[in-house]
Every structure is written in C-alpha cells, then in structure tokens.
Write a structure and sequence with these properties.
By secondary structure, the chain is α+β, with helices and mostly antiparallel strands. It contains 8 helices and 15 strands. The protein folds into 3 domains: 70 residues, RNA-binding S4 domain (Structural Genomics Hypothetical 15.5 Kd Protein In mrcA-pckA Intergenic Region, Chain A), CATH 3.10.290; 85 residues, 2-Layer Sandwich (Pseudouridine synthase); 115 residues, Pseudouridine synthase. The strands form 2 sheets. Strands 5, 6, 7, 8, 9, 10, 11, 12, 13, 14 and 15 form an 11-stranded mixed sheet that branches. Its EC number is 5.4.99.-.
C-alpha cells in the first residue's frame, strides 16, 4: 500500500488527472478500474475520478510497489549551467526572453535544449525544484513561440501559478505584443479579422476573409511604429493566439515579415540574408501585460514586462528607419 499526502502543488485538480500524472504509463482504463474496485481511496473513502484534491488530502493506493513503479516514469535532469535571459522572476513565475533558433517545447525525450528543459535545469540548479520531492508537478511554460520567433515565454514554478496563468490566457486577459518589420508601407493602425485554416502536413496556415470548413476565427491588432516607402516597423497585438497567425495574416495583407522563409517574399528575404545574414523572420514577442490574475498572482495585475531585441534586430531597425 502506498500513502500519498497531497501537497499544494497537487491540489485543486481532478483525482483521475493526478493519477495519470503520477502513473503516466498506466492506462485510463486501469486507473478507473482501480477506483471502481476501491483499490484507490481518498481520505479512507471510495474515490471518484472527478473528485477535486485539496492540500492535506490522503490518497491510499492498494497496489503492489512493483505495479506502481512499473507505471511511473523516471525524471532525468542534467545538472548543467543554464544561460537564460531572464526578464522577470519571483517565487511563482519566471519570464524568459527566448532567442530565435530554440524550441519552446520538444516532444523528444532526448532534447535538453528547449525552453522547458532549460527552465527545469535552471530551477533544479537553484534548488527550487527537486523531482524526488514532487509527486506530479514539473515546472512548465504557459505559452509557446515558433522556433525562429524570439521573445517572452512565461514559466510557472508551481501548479497554482500554472493554472491561474492558463486560465487568464484562455480568457484573453493576458495581452501579448510583438515587434516585426514587414515589406511595404503601412499607413495606419487597425484591427484585422479573418479565418485561418492550418494544414498540419505542410505546417502552413491559409487565411480567408469568410468562414471555410474547419477554419478558426482570428483577430490581429496592428500599430505602426515607423514606416517608409519600403518597410514598416509594427507592433502586433495578438488578440487570438493561433500558431503562425501573425506571419500568415500579415502575408495575406500583402505585408509579409522580412526574413520569413515560409510566408515571406523571396526577393526581400534574399536581400536581408545577403546584407544582414538574416535567416529567419523578424518577429519578436517584446511585451506582455498581465490582467485578470486571481489569488496568489493578483499582485501581477496591471504590470507590463519588456524583452529586449537582439543586436541584429536593433541594427536592422536603425539602418532601415
């Protein structure tokens, strides 16, 4: 029999979701069967899959130790020095300025150089995270950026922070702003709406003015910071956060982002590659505003954080405008 005392990082989640994280190799069918047969009890009573765990609850697993270990996964952390560009950090969250060329998250177990694994290594090195002391929680990120898009990634240091930030993002209370340079003159600020259809096989999105089957509604705010007859420096308010939304939407408008190899202009990209050695889109998530956060994160409401552009981006802006 295994006794588990629910800590703060395991509280406020469904029992079946906790068990699936605690024994990730176990099927949902096995977990539900053990609950039905009362082989898993909560506070000495029969437990239901949708029971919400509270801090201090006692969970008893009437399973052999070998069975539990068979369903668990070993967490390996490289104890290495991690160089993160930290915009802000406190006991609950960390804001990381991700450089272009690095994945936000990788599905490959052997990839130690995505932001998630770098965050885990960083917190492990600081002594703020120890997988041997945690039952299910692993530090995680709340938003993602394309590999070649740089800028702010929100990291959560505890389960409550992860829940609260994800809730605020779903409710569109956290505002995310990007800087980019596009081809052509943009004369005024505006908000553009449309529909986006993603082709998973080609990893490419198409934009439509009217709804087509399977498309998702998108909304993008555009503010002109600088412009001339050839290029415009824009601030983008990502109102709906779809993958490739900014890149595809601007290309649809006839103002593709410079350096964008998927949605950009071939001749423009060749110019910036030869002159500036730019091999990826000039797109940077530079600012984030927090609103709508509750409970232990309410102190962040109304606060804004900025991630600096890298030297190459600063040089291009200075020379173009």
């Amino acid at each position: 029999m295994k006794e588990i005392i629910i800590s703060k990082n395991e509280s406020n989640q469904r029992l079946d979701r906790f068990l699936k994280k605690y024994m990730p190799r176990a099927s949902k069918g096995f977990i539900y069967k053990m609950l039905r047969k009362k082989r898993i009890k909560l506070n000495g009573k029969k437990a239901k899959p949708n029971d919400i765990l509270k801090e201090g609850d006692i969970l008893n697993l009437y399973l052999a130790e070998d069975t539990i270990n068979k369903f668990k996964e070993e967490i390996k952390i490289e104890n290495r020095k991690v160089n993160l560009d930290i915009v802000y950090e406190d006991e609950n969250i960390i804001l990381i300025n991700k450089p272009k060329g690095i994945l936000s998250h990788s599905d490959r177990a052997d990839n130690r150089y995505d932001v998630v694994n770098m965050l885990i290594s960083y917190l492990y090195g600081k002594g703020e995270y120890n997988p041997n002391e945690e039952k299910t929680f692993t530090p995680s990120i709340c938003n993602r950026l394309d590999r070649n898009t740089s800028g702010i990634i929100i990291g959560a240091k505890n389960f409550m922070a992860l829940q609260l930030i994800n809730k605020a993002i779903r409710e569109k209370m956290i505002k995310k702003y990007y800087k980019c340079i596009v081809k052509g003159r943009v004369d005024k600020d505006f908000i553009i709406k449309g529909y986006m259809l993603k082709d998973a096989e080609k990893n490419r999105a198409d934009i439509f003015q009217n709804y087509v089957n399977g498309a998702k509604k998108i909304e993008t705010g555009i503010k002109v910071l600088k412009s001339n007859d050839e290029y415009s420096l824009l601030e983008i308010n990502l109102i709906t956060g779809r993958t490739h939304q900014i890149r595809a939407h601007l290309s649809y408008l006839g103002h593709p982002i410079i350096g964008d190899m998927k949605y950009g202009d071939i001749i423009t990209n060749r110019f910036f590659k030869e002159k500036y050695n730019l091999y990826s889109q000039f797109l940077h998530s530079n600012r984030i505003e927090f609103n709508g956060l509750e409970d232990c994160l309410s102190y962040l409401n109304g606060k804004s954080f900025i991630a600096d552009l890298d030297d190459l981006f600063e040089k291009i802006i200075k020379e173009l405008f």
